[in-house]
Amino acid sequence: MKQETKRLSSIIIAALILAAALVVYFEYIVPTYTSLENLKGEQESEVALYNNESQIVDQVKSLLTAYQNDAAASQAVALALPTGQDLSGALAQVYGIASNTGFTIQQTGISVQAIQESTAPSTDGSTPTGSIVKPMGTISFQITGSGSYESLKNFLGGLATNIRIFDVTAMSVQPGSVVATKTQPANPDMFNFTLTVVTYYQGS
Fold it and tell me: Cα–Cα distance between 19 and 105 in angstroms, integer?
């Protein structure tokens, strides 16, 4: 009887231990595991959201940079090829370059070419009513001046590197006075120049 009692007690104890283990598993381990899985899912969602927002921020920064670059490029184009003739600005730049290089401008003639509107047909044969490309006009300056060869070279270099576009389309050179006068000593390095300088502008 004692042996059977011990065996029965062992079975009951084992059953109690198994029941306790099942209770602990279902009451504590399963909820904790489920909570961890939920936390893991939330963390993954937050990480994905952060990555998406980071990509959006990077795209916005890229767009801002592109916009700033476009604005700077548009400003540079406006200075090099202004909208409207801006005769006073062009003359001020020409005379400023001459003053900085020692080239003396004696006379300036101005000739403005009217803008020719484009009437070229489109690819389908029709004539376009508008175009995103603005028509261009030209302004010619006939400049008569004097100076040394070095001053002329510097003047032409200043025109070539100026922010507004200037093209020298014609030039003639004549020797200056090499005979001394009462008001001016002889200078063999003095020349008289006639230049035709063309600049451009956009139509409004």
Answer: 111
Burial of 98 (0-12, 13-18, 19+ CB in 10 A): buried
> Please, what are the averages of pLDDT over each run of 10 residues along the chain (204 residues)?
68 75 74 78 80 79 68 72 89 94 93 70 50 76 93 93 93 75 66 94 82
Same domain, 2 and 60: yes
Q: How far is CA 90 from CA 100, 106, 110, 121, 140, in A?
A: 16, 17, 11, 34, 11
**Same domain for 102 and 44:** no
Range of the domain at 74: 1-80
Paired sense of beta strands 191-202 and 166-175, if any = antiparallel
Query: Does the pTM of the predicted model rise above 0.85?
Result: no
Contact 54, 65 (CB under 8 A): no
124 belongs to a structural domain: no
**Is there a single domain that holds both residue 114 and residue 43?**
no
End-to-end CA separation in angstroms for the chain: 117
Do 7 and 65 lie in one domain? The reply is yes
